[in-house]
Amino acid sequence: MQNITKLQVEQKQSLKQKLALNEMLSHGIRSLGKNLLWLASAQFSGRVVRLGASVITARLLTPEIFGQVAIVLTLFELICTPTRRITSAALIRMNDADFSDNLASANSINFASCISAFVLMSLISLPLAYYYQDSQLILPILFVASSYLLLPFGMLYATVNLRNNNMRKVASANLWQTIGDGVLTAVLALSGFGIWAIIIPKVVMVFVWIYIHKTATPLPVFTQATSIARVKALLNFSVPVSLSDLINTLRQSIDYLVIGYFMGVEALGVYFFAYNVSLGVSLGLVQSFGTAFYSHLCSDNDDLSVQSAQQKYRNSVIAITAIAAPIIILQTSLAPLYVPFVYGEQWLSTDALAVFIFLCLSGLVRPMAEAASQLLLANGHSRLNFNLNIAITALLTLVISIASQFDLTTVALSVMVTYLIIMPWLCWYSSRISFSQSTVKHS
User: Which domain of life is it from (predicted)?
Assistant: First the structure.
């Protein structure tokens, strides 16, 4: 009789634990969903405004100008990427006391890295202009580089908002920055500013991003001054993360670099146009997902068992795929109708439509790559993430280099096929590595 009673008690406890676990997981998914909703809605609203701007610029600017813009913005993105999480990736994981102790050191790193980025981009402008035989690239590159000097004034505030899972504030900053960018681009394009219509807003809107992040976001008191030991500790964690982000950005931009090298600025302009129009919405969702997912994984990972963490990861990947896939499929199916109608018949004389469709379809699996990368970083596998991105980037470089010997349609088709094969494998492999390692830790 006592054995039966004991068994019933154990069953009730087991049931309670399962219910508590399910509640924790569902709460986590709801929290991620809420954060993703804020970020995605901001991205979507901003993309609507940017769509209007792209309609205007597509009708007023030539493929050559789009090619120049692609060179400037790709260079900016590659140099800027390592600075974005140079301290935030480490700070987000800390408890409150360590967070306050490291703020001064993190602030010093932010300023040093952004000033270095400004100097590096300025120095690259001259050989890049010489390579493309286009001196008009120098001033736009220098002007865009000046935005690096503004970023440190908002980076710690953005980190606080991310650490507190205040995605509403993060989304607002992204939204108004994007809306301002789109509106100002349209106004300047209509006023005949040419390439500057796209370049000027990139710098001006940084002020908006800083202002929104700083408003009603008090920084904790800097309890410790900058110290070499803390700087080293922050960099030991963050440098591999930043390098992984850089390689990830390089992987996403490698087609620009290879096409510009093999096929020239005009072909690059056509590809850049098709890429941004086709993947604008889906990449916005992927970026929003990555921003929310890293904070989501770091928030309560220590309280979950291996099986629960794995389920949390799978549910999150399924959720973002379920959101992105219908949008991408609809966009692809309607492309032959709205691309010439919205952007002008002149784009039909190029390969833009076929490139648009293939790149759209490659977006179906891009969320998997983002999820895999954030999972590895959250579990401390920054070096593995770096190595995987290096390997994938090398593979893409080889594939695109071969495809560039034919035409832009072949390039886009090759990119699509490579992504559809590699990204699901990367998602599976990252899960296997992260959770098998966790099994060892928990055992």
Answer: Bacteria
